[in-house]
Write a structure and sequence with these properties.
With 395 residues, the protein is of the alpha+beta class. It contains 16 helices and twelve strands.
Length: 395
């Protein structure tokens, strides 16, 4: 077994990429548009620092950026059809029975006021209110990796009600104002309708606090671990009757002996160890399901806590729930890699279609890389360790 067998240098990048491009050709239709789409993917996967029209055109050997710009603008093709193909491709590469769906948002800080959906709004990317666009995303994560599989541009209410700006940025007439949790519900439902193997749905408190999302998932029998804020209102039965409280109050009243240490996955310095506890929110399992309040506490700073509402199969262990809760970081890794390596935040297009086309093309490039990484992990795990012929080394 040579180093190249497990290092990945023998992976047939060009062959795999060619097959992925061929699979995407029907999305673009006309031959010229297919060629431009292929060149755009090459540019995203290249080492150029900025994925702008000019630099992508130069990378493709074109003297002008018009074809690249037209791909995002006036040309005719369906970004949602590309998104659907990315979702299928990702689940083929990464799908597993214990995979998870993760929803979160990310910001795109920009100057000016003409790009679709741009407004002064809070974005976690900057950690403050900035002039920005905000996109809500859905990622799939399995044992072999993770990838973004859906996206929605959040259109602030002022934008949704402004006919002139809608017309100028080509916002479709059927697109109305929708909250971020409503966008998340649409994406999660579409993924589940596509029969993606999903053990849990994960989200932060913006989405976990949405009762409609929780009811939708419970109606589907879909397990979830959704973050909520410490002051989230809780009502549940006890022997004394129905009580109303909140996660923070419950955590304050817990004794030290109630907590158990479990890892929330691997970090850069090894297992991320926290203290955990869970409190039943229903007196008995319903249709084989249980509801819990899950609380995570920092071992270095006990006042630093996180709270989750859980819906899961009866018998699910605290250790498993801790591990599932820790998987929410996978979408953050998707954001980091697609922004730093693939130009997720380099979109120059101002229109609704331009934004969704650029983002979908980046997702296609990211899914390709996720598949290569998954193939490499599969190849490495299938190789049997071989004993060194040097007996002194073996000893």
């Amino acid at each position: 077994m040579s180093v190249s067998d497990w290092s990945g240098s023998l992976l047939e990048w060009e062959r795999e990429l060619g097959a992925w491009k061929a699979r995407l050709d029907p999305v673009f239709g006309r031959r010229e548009l297919r060629e431009t789409g292929r060149a755009f993917l090459d540019g995203l996967l290249s080492g150029i620092a900025r994925k702008t029209g000019w630099m992508m055109a130069e990378q493709a050997g074109l003297s002008r950026p018009w074809r690249m710009q037209a791909l995002l603008g006036r040309s005719r093709w369906d970004a949602d059809a590309l998104r659907d193909e990315v979702r299928r491709y990702a689940v083929e590469a990464l799908g597993c029975p214990d995979g998870v769906l993760v929803v979160d948002e990310t910001g795109f800080v920009k100057k000016g006021r003409h790009s679709v959906g741009i407004a002064r709004q809070y974005t976690g990317t900057a950690g403050r209110v900035e002039n920005s666009q905000v996109g809500v995303f859905l990622a799939y994560a399995g044992r072999l990796g993770q990838a973004l599989i859906d996206r929605r541009l959040y259109l602030p209410q002022d934008w949704a009600a402004d006919g002139a700006r809608r017309a100028k940025t080509q916002v479709p007439a059927e697109v109305a104002f929708a909250t971020k949790p409503a966008l998340a519900r649409e994406m999660i439902a579409a993924a589940l309708d596509a029969d993606m193997p999903c053990a849990f749905v994960l989200a932060d408190a913006v989405y976990g606090s949405d009762s409609r999302l929780r009811r939708m998932l419970e109606g589907r029998g879909q397990s979830y671990v959704l973050a909520v804020r410490g002051n989230h209102t809780l009502r549940f039965p006890t022997v004394e009757g129905l009580i109303q409280t909140d996660p923070e109050t419950i955590a304050d009243d817990l004794e030290d002996g109630a907590w158990a240490a479990h890892a929330a996955g691997e970090g850069s310095k090894g297992p991320r160890l926290y203290d955990w506890v869970r409190i039943a929110l229903s007196g008995y399992p319903e249709d084989g399901r249980e509801r819990w309040l899950l609380i995570r506490r920092s071992r270095n700073d006990p006042d630093k806590r996180a709270y989750y509402l859980v819906f899961c199969h009866a018998g699910t262990t605290l250790a498993e729930l801790a591990g599932v809760a820790g998987l929410r970081w996978t979408i953050e890794e998707c954001f980091q890699r697609t922004k730093s390596d693939l130009g997720l935040d380099h979109c120059e297009a101002r229109s609704w279609h331009g934004w969704h086309r650029h983002i979908s093309l980046v997702m296609a490039a990211a899914a390709f890389l996720a598949k290569l990484a998954a193939d490499l992990r599969n190849a490495a795990s299938s190789k049997r360790n071989e004993t060194s012929p040097d007996s002194s080394i073996a000893a």
